[in-house]
Amino acid sequence: MKITEVGAVMTTDVVTAAPGTALGDVIRALGEHRVGALPVTDEEDRVIGVISTSDLTRPRPVRRRARTAGDVMSAPAVVVKAGATVTEGSWLMTGHDVGRLPVVDDEGRLVGIVTRADLLQAVLRTDGAIERAVRRDVLGSALWLTPRALAVTVEDGVVTLTGRLERRSDVDVAVRAASRLGGVVAVVDQLSYGVDDTRPRPAAVEAEEPVAGT
Predict the structure, then answer these.
(1) Distances (CA, A) of 122 to 137, 168, 184, 187, 202
(2) Phi and psi angles of residue 153, each rounded to the nearest 5 degrees, phi first
């Protein structure tokens, strides 16, 4: 798994609660493990909610007496897939104002948990490390070029790509691949191309055959 994917930086040893877990047990688990929230999972390990310290202190109607995790959890849970990029994980955390996310597989089953600190550690890369990653993962793996086929400069996380590629579609691939790398703030596209293979080709016009006897 690539370092830019959530699954590469998540913690796999996760403390969870069931919907029927008593609130007293939830409070003890939060304190013993020094975490701010617990994923709530069903019998098949699917994440159905999250219970946090703020959920425990949120005012509720008097007629409803909360006794279990299922009574007070936030649902549906905000989760992230293991194959998502750390940038996508950061966007989710920021958009939902949370400090940690349960990580799930394609079936929605819990496989780990990731915190804001985990994601920050993954993206804090030096400019030199980013340049090496661009030459290896973009020029080499994505475009099948030699590491020096293009000029690559990185300053404060901003990647500038300069040079000429054979096709316009290769330019799009290069920019997208570079922007997904951990630590990349932005990509400046200074690339040119030989052939624009993104335009639809005009339909062939068949020559009219002369009518016999004319």
Answers:
(1) 16, 31, 11, 18, 46
(2) -125, 145
Tokens linked to 211: 């009518």
Q: Are 161 and 178 in contact (CB under 8 A)?
A: yes
120 or 191, higher pLDDT: 191
DSSP percent split of the chain into helix, strand, coil, nearest 5: 35, 25, 40
Query: Residue 2: what pLDDT?
Result: 53
N-to-C CA span, the chain: 71
> What is the enclosing helix (H) or strand (E) of 8?
helix 6-9
Task: Note whether 11 and 118 are within 8 A (CB).
Answer: yes
Has this prediction a pTM greater than 0.85?
no
- Mean pLDDT for the stretch of residues 70-83: 91
Residue 12: what are its φ and ψ, rounded to 5°?
Answer: -90, -20
Share of the chain above pLDDT 90, in %: 49
